[in-house]
Amino acid sequence: MAASPAGSEIERLISLLARLPGLGPRSARRAALALVKKREQLLLPLAEALADAGAKIRPCSSCGNIDACDPCHICTSPGRDITMICVVQEVGDVWALERAAAFRGRYHVLGGCLSALDGIRPEDLKIAELIARAQDEDVKEVILAMNATIDGQTTAHYITDHLRDCDVRITRLAHGVPVGGELDYLDDGTLTAALQSRRDF
After folding, report:
1. How far is CA 197 from CA 10, 141, 148, 178, in A?
2. pTM (2 decimals)?
3. Phi-psi region of 37 (alpha: psi -120 to 50; beta: other; left: phi over 0)
4. Helix/strand number for the chain, H first, E second
């Protein structure tokens, strides 16, 4: 077996980079070479940023967003509308909606969606926590901003059934979100229009 042209440290870096979404082995090698070539400008600052993120960033105990503080800056912002909770599957969906600046309420990150194929059950998601939050007398509306996939819509129906006893309006994003589409890949205009055109579930 031929020896690798790179040392074990480089191979470990490539192997770790290759685990990132969107990076295969070839892209990981290119990224590793770019980092090593620009050690002062990229590699060392990235290592420092990763160490800081690992030490400081954690999930918000209220909404599930990630931040360096708990509760997160969205939950503690005095300018947010506390009567509305927007339910999303993943943290990236929060970032997409915030990027569009279309929503000024608060969020609830489920941590995924129900999936019989993947063995994801209601107890694996933060659905019980959502129901508890929806029972707060300040909350008037729960917006289900789920991905327009079969699993996303199954999750939305499950949540709707379990929120029936809460005194809240339940809405969902309008169908401007394409079937099979994921929030993090949509443009800001589509997200804004979908939020503004929401209707009762």
Report:
1. 50, 14, 15, 14
2. 0.80
3. alpha
4. 8, 7
Domains of the chain in start order, with CATH, are 8-56 (1.10.8.420), 66-200 (3.40.1360.10)
Q: What would the pLDDT profile of 140-197 be if each residue is shown by its tens digit?
A: 999 999 988 889 999 999 999 999 989 999 999 876 677 677 888 888 877 887 887 7
Helix axes of 188-196 and 91-100: crossing angle, nearest 10 degrees: 90
Nearby residues of 163 by Cβ (< 8 Å), 6 or more positions away? 130, 131, 134, 142, 170
The Cα 30–Cα 24 span in angstroms is 10
Report yes or no: 177 and 183 within 8 Å, Cβ to Cβ. Answer: yes
Nearest alpha-carbon partner for 146 in 56, 66, 86, 83: 86
Contact 139, 82 (CB under 8 A): yes
84-88 and 169-172 beta bridge pairing: unpaired
Residue 56 CB burial class (10 angstroms; 0-12, 13-18, ≥19): exposed
- Which residues, in sequence order, are bridge partners of residue 172? 144, 199
Q: Which residue has the tokens 């918000």?
A: 60
Q: How many C-beta neighbours within 10 Å does residue 190 have?
A: 19
